[in-house]
What we know:
By secondary structure, the chain is α/β, with parallel strands linked by helices. The chain contains 12 helices and 7 strands.
Amino acid sequence: MKVIAIVPCYRSSRIAPIVVRDILEYVDNVICVDDNCPEKTGSEIERLISNKKLNVIYHNKNKGVGGATKTGIKLALTLNADLILKIDSDGQMDPRNIPKLIEPIINLEADFTKGNRFRDIEVLIKMPKIRLIGNIALGFITKLSTGYWELFDPTNGFIAINTKILNIIQYEKTDDRYFFESDLLFRCGLYDLLIGEISMPTIYKNEKSGLNPLIEFFRYIPRHIIIFIKRIIYQYFLLDFNPGSITILFGLFSGLYTLTAGITSITYYKNLNIESPLGIKILFLTTSIISVQSMISFLYYDSNQRQLKRQLKSLERNAIKKN
């Protein structure tokens, strides 16, 4: 199985050559994509490393981590890669974890694997608090929008993917910037692809991250809402219709009725300068409770049944593998 690593490079001229040299020990080829880096990281890598397994691509303009990764994927496919992994150039991801990352895919236990920074309490203690809080918030909203509730660190950028699924998920349409990983998960979720996680430490030094998780949480909420709506339409109405479909419909309609009736009643009785009747208040409270309970039931169904479906798929695959 041919394994190719893609390394998006931006403002990492000091550490990137060291990272790339380590990665070369574990893969068949390394593709570094200099994303119009002002520090000329790509040139620095070529100056310090001479290896036939190394390819360096230069962007004329900055496209973002997603755009750089997609450029690398296109070249990797022409090199007949069977498995593609993406690792950042800033030194926060230890290349020694590469064998562990790709093992589930090689063993046909997963289609896609990601790192998980949150399994080790020592890592959590060392992680800068702003990053910890921001990553937890980003992780939750990503689980909700993509449907991969079983992933504890869904925004992790240390990933490996079987090239056979790339055309299925239409990776070219994914976001060009930091939303790339979440967009990729959303597309995998539409096909209930198996995604595994491996425990990994994250190295935090004095480097400056281009991503502030708390800021990105609010910046990307609209995009998460869009892919959440798309996922619900596909998974609960176009490709399937199940108890979750009924629950979310009931919750939405009761919520819409509660909102409309509530505003209408408040406006009507306010114009009459009288207090709303007790019956109206009880009705508003009842429909509000029904709506909230319906949405909670949907979230419970979504977080359990989608995961169960993927677990059954995994068991079936393991049974075929044993036979």
